[in-house]
Amino acid sequence: MEKKSKVKSQKSKLTEGEVVHVANLAHLALAPKEIKKIRDQLSEVLDYVKILQQVDTVKIVPTSQVTGLKDVFREDSVQPSLSVKDSLSESKNSEGEKFKVKSIFQ
Amino acid sequence: MKLNELTIKEAHEGLRQKKFSSLELVRACLGQIKRLDPKINAFITVCEREAAKEAERADKILGQKPTDISARPLLGIPVAVKDNFCTKGLKTTASSNVLADFIPPYDATVVTKIKDAGAVILGKTNMDAWAHGSSTETSDFFTTHNPWNFNRLPGGSSGGSAASIAADETIASLGSETAGSIRQPSSWCGTVGFKPTYGRVSRYGLIAMASSLDCPGPIAKTVSDAAILLRIIAGKDPSDATTSSYAVPNYLEKINKGTKGIRVGVAKEYLAVAENEIKEAVLAAVKTLEKMGAKVKDISLVDPKYAIAVYTILQRSEVSSNLARYDGIRFGFGREKFGQEAKRRIMLGTYYLSAGYYEAYYLKAQKMRSIICRDFEKAFKDVDVILGPSAPTTALPLGASKDHPMFGEMMDILFEPSAIAGLPGLSLTCGFSAEGLPIGMQILGPQFSEELLFQVGYAFEQATDWHKRKPKL
Amino acid sequence: MMRQIGQISQIRRANYQPIIGLEIHIELKTKSKMFCGCPADHFGKPPNTQTCPVCLGLPGALPVPNRKAVEWTIMAGLALGCQIPGESKFDRKNYFYPDLPKGYQISQYDQPLAISGKLGNIGICRVHLEEDTGKLVHVEKATLIDFNRSGVPLMEIVTEPDLTSSDEAKEFLQNLQRIIKYLGISEADMEKGQMRCEPTVNLEIKKGNLTVYTPLAEIKNINSFRFVKRAIDFEVQRQFEEFERTGIEKQAGNKVTRGWNEQKGITILQREKEEAADYRYFPEPDIPPMRFERKNIEDLRKKLPELPEKRARRFIREYGVSEYNAAILIENKGKADFFEEAVSYARELEKPPGTKAIGDWIVNKRVDLAKTSPENLLKAILAKAGAATLDDSELIAAITSVLGINQKAVIDYNNGKEPALMFLVGQVLRRTKGKGDPGQIRLLLEKELHDDKKR
Q: pTM of the full predicted structure?
């Protein structure tokens, strides 16, 4: 049995609260104007993908990869790392060979 | 003929016979870039000095050891690389402000491979930011213009790579496709684009868009050039667990075997989506192949509109996860620098994967993906290849993609089913519209049927003159 | 929700029972990291010297799983009596934190490598494999990050909520640590963060005919066995008092995360994450799934070393040591190995001390194994206690008796089953309380068995 879905059957109009919640999950700071615009655009796409609900997939096994590959491993051997200089070279903020961010406790 | 107009094959011959030097070849391309790129905007970065230096090095090898040349099929030949392939010490932006100043400390596997083959990297080409789009209009920097008509879009996301080939700014180029990003701009720019089987070419160092779909591939001037490039970049990579160890053939070996007896399927669902002019050109191409001995058969495939829905869900979901690493801590700028399209995709993907919606969207799409895969498997029991239109329209005017949250999907509708199934596809020109814009057709085959696709494409190319037309520049 | 005062006083007199489940993370000591070739041994290494595009999460980098880490996790699962499902895969666990370079952790969601095991009478829910995060260092107004630890293979073991006291939790962890060390897959040093434990605690409270439960609390930041016990004890008391005060019961969504504060000896409510945990798991598209044939699993099972409990039983059987001392001798693999080395050295001596005496000596004298060798230990024993005082007649009597009551072993030996001899040696040692030299006993036994055959 397919799990009961929370997908709204009529219009997929997202609420602003939902958009803000998703933006928080995605770590995106959206301006109020953006929220409204994105809300409309997301709703439009959600409306479109509803056509999938027309297809009966109860007995179908999902496909997440198409290669048919399995058990791909590397052997446990050490390869050269980057130099500290190269590791830190693209960072805009570092201190004492470490990356630096604003205190996460503030 | 100007040097920058040469194909890989011609350039390789010319260098071997010392008709010209690599430096002359590179300078011819750089000259064309200088003359035209201010109007076309195909390149984000042009490596003028480094390319000249590399060319001089290649010339030295060409002068000393003739034996080395055949082992290095790109020796001294300029290649333009899409800006989502990491290039060590060379700015790699994915056309996003987030990576506006990012200089990778490593090379993508395909970049290593073309360097090992002797290529001279000419520069990095413009694209839709993060490869999200089919126009290059979502590039955070600028829009690339179509060499056939500067008021038109080149397509995307590999729009810069396709435009640079169409404008003869380079001899060869590398693109990447998730669903249409090689074939669609090839169709609009009149170039040859090849999207390989998923797993045929390493993704290591390709800035990830949708990991289960992404695939690097060549954009070239002729079918045999695409075959030469693919042979160089294809193969198992220990750094990419999803690459196949299936042997890479010499695609040129059987390329001129013709189409006699090859069963060509034509799907009505694909023709139905294309504009009339395109449909007619594709049907004419079918006739051409039939005359050459191919057996044409009408087939039916799952309506591509479902593939759009599947793609929209899987791709957005994977994007939302793949773009999570851009936090501005270890490299690049912070998340506030994401453009509108990237934000939209991240938001949608996050929503699809979030608690309570996973089954309804992501899992459902994965199941539909299975149905689409099976559908192709069934079709390929009756036919060897499937022929159809590439993009459903010819190049659209600048601005066409603006604020359209599914513009890419609509432009890529005929690429999405095969991309979702991980199949290879070759796009090449099969005519021109009344407005003088290229019309593309695509040839699809089962997984790892690259050799056959090149064979059919080459036969068509030899039988027609479309690839010889050049934009007036 | 406040309750009537009358009810609260009822609870005060009521019984309560802690319910404890453990989530244990163990860093595997593979040579390289989980998904890249950087060295996995990060302890005390200069910051950011062991990183690469993969473990820094640079654009375009891809993970390739370490075969050894997968095999070791399966072996740990087998050692914990788990089932190994035929199919497994990696998933992405999506969340943002500065120590998580990709914005997702490659972990395992619905198909862990091992499930449904048991250690003692504690159920093991699952064992899975994931990658460790970078290390955060908090300085004034800033947080610094070292990614040497990022991508180190991390095995997660989740127990059923079968534990009922802090002592039981401590004992379980020590037992588990011992097994891990015996397997040789991790040093499992809690102080070094190679083994981390997050207990989830709540209380079952009986009041009259009713049974109620307090809200779950997951306790983080514990770095020693001692503190596991103290943190659980504190939390149990705290929950009981809180329940008395508020009457709040467990319900969906009111699980909390509390941090153990070592200085104050208390747990502190950690700032709630802005969003309820929504990790948006989905199958890792960069790594093909894993499929295990039965044969491969059995091959790994064969690679399992003798585990501590089994070894203790053998010590009792073969060397005649007491149950109590056997438990101490197997406490760590080094000590058990030392004991057996001393035993095998003793066998080369003409007049050795008894095997039981060697074990007793190590336990009773609290021998510092770092400061002596098996050889010197034997010298010390011989100097103080002398060789095993067992005259030949006593020994012969023991042998005769053992042969008499172990006819099956005698027949087995005569049919060419060599291990039967070791069994008989063990039985003799047991009868002589470990006195007598196993080598000599063996010779005598062989002679006796041969004579027996001739008869």
A: 0.90
